[in-house]
Amino acid sequence: MPVFFSNPAGFWALLGIPVILLIHFLQRQSQRLPSSTLFLLDAIDRRSLRGRKIDKLRNSLPLWLQLLSVLVLTWLLVAPRWNSASSVQRIVLVLDSSASMEAFREAAVEAIEKQIPKLTARTGQAAYTVLESHLQGEKLYRGETFSELVDSLEGWQPSNSAHSPEGALRVGRSLAGTSGALIYVTDHLNDSLPYGTTLLSIGETIENVGFAGLSVRSPEEGSDPTWQVTVRNYSDTQQTREWFLAAGQERTSARSITLDPGATRTLSGVFPAGASRVQLVLEPDRFTRDDTLFVIRPEPKEITLAHNVAPNASELIADIIGSLENAPIFSSDESSGDETSRPDLVFSTYNPLDPQPAPPVSVVLLNQKNVPRTFFKGPIVAANHGLIEGLNWQGLIAKSTASIPVGEKDVPLLWQGDRPLILLRESGEIRQLLFNFDVIQSNAARLPSFVVLIHRFVDAVRADKIAARNENAELRQPVELAFETGENAAPLILSSDAGERTFPLNRAALIQAPSQPGFFTVRQGNRPLLNGSANFADTREADFSEAATRSDISGLPKEIIEHQTVTDPLWKLWAIGLLLVALLTWHILKQADHRSPAARAT
């Protein structure tokens, strides 16, 4: 069992050995003792006649006792410790998985290789665990071999937005226990880490210029869609970068952009003819995650519309349909013979005096030919529902007409007095938004809330349609999809530059945009559901002005030794023995002084 000395400076006490030997080499100066006879001369010790000098070492019990005292004192001062028979040193590393760590990934691995072995140099068996800060409980590595730990860091790709590591640190402390070492590897200083966490910061201030925003504007009639991006200089010095636009195998010539410290500049342009996706590329720097933007021309799912409204409502419905994006008028192909083909949404009117069933998925406007002159009275109250949330209906003026029959499962969205003015009907294949007042004879068309509510309902219908759409997303952004269900339904497949991942239908809610910038697709079997782009968008992680380096690991080895080793169980006996040796030495020397002729002469 190896022995460790927690206070190596105690070995300086061994210098007492040559000092004691030197003292015993020195002889006292001779003394004159008058005597009346010569037989007493034999009892006198031979002394130096010329004072103190180096003489031969005289073997004596005090000499050995004093040397033994020095050895015992040294043993106590160096504080020897032994490894506990069952000691296992637990070391948990929590790696900051925020995107800014990408610039210091190699430095972090190098710091771990250099500093972590020091923690186990004087202990027995070690157990290592490596966690990412954004995942509570999921591990990059768990084992007892440090070389395997280093190899596991090959797959570490920090890419998350700014977040608190507290959850991962809580899990780390539970794994490390009270005596284990919990180390947080990051690039920013943090003096308030919980759970007794030790900081290992490897950051530094670096110059960074990158894309900080993206928007794509829908084309106006006869024009191309336009993109607009912002470029930001996070440095405290002026920076110049070149940038270009690429579409497929073609690219523009490089252009230069110069930004003052902390400045932001806007770039804009149009999509090349026939291109639905482009890349905007900045001259790369040390932090490359924000140097490329992948831009796809957004396009919502196509939703086909139809209407069978009364003539007096046709102009209003035409205006509403014209305001909807990617919503063409449905046209049936009678030659195909497909009787199931029908529009996704129908605008319809309902006359309570001549009731007719409304289409299954529809927006229904009450339209009574003979409208009374009286108006609805009472306060207007909106329900707590997402479709109508935040909409102001207080200016609505509607005439009192007969009501659409209200079903037991209908959800009223708006009341005036005891009259439900707007109803939501959802049951099986039925999905209807019912305006239970005469819209044409009211001022609803002049209220923004009326148009916004219809848009929200259309978007809800669109979201549930199983069809492809184009969308720009942020890294790791959750993806909402409509897909086929049932026993024979195919799983969902996400494809990106990193490869393909298959998701069973019961885990579709876990689908996210990739963690690395680029284009990606989601499909079900051969049916495309989403064409998207994933881009870095957290500007906080692109700012390295407060990145710094500091290691608090230096104090851990001493704490680890104290936790994982035991002290000499006999140290109290050694201390008592040292005291006894000192007393015995003193007693022997005192007795020798009493027996000396000089002492007897006095």
Summary of the model, kept short:
This protein has helices spanning 16-25, 61-77, 105-115, 146-152, 166-176, 314-322, 448-463, 556-564, 571-595, 597-601; strands at 3-5, 80-83, 88-95, 125-132, 139-143, 181-186, 198-202, 209-217, 226-233, 239-247, 250-251, 255-259, 264-270, 277-282, 292-296, 305-308, 345-350, 361-366, 380-382, 411-416, 419-427, 430-438, 469-474, 492-496, 499-503, 518-524, 527-535, 549-551, 565-567.
Query: What fraction, in percent, of the residue positions are helical?
Result: 10-25%
Number of domains: 4
Stated plainly, the CATH topology of the largest domain is called Rossmann fold
| Sequence of strands across the biggest β-sheet | 16-17-18-22-21-20-19
Number of strands: 29
Characterise the protein shown here:
The protein has 602 residues and is an alpha+beta fold. The chain has four domains: 3-79 and 568-601, no CATH class; 88-204 and 547-565, Rossmann fold, CATH 3.40.50.410; 305-330 and 341-463, Rossmann fold; 469-535, Immunoglobulin-like (Sandwich). 20% of the residues lie in helices and 28% in strands. The chain contains ten helices and 29 strands. The strands form six sheets. The chain has a seven-stranded mixed sheet with strand order 16-17-18-22-21-20-19, with helices on one face. A hairpin with an 8-residue loop joins strand 8 (209-217) and strand 9 (226-233). The longest helix has 25 residues, at 571-595.
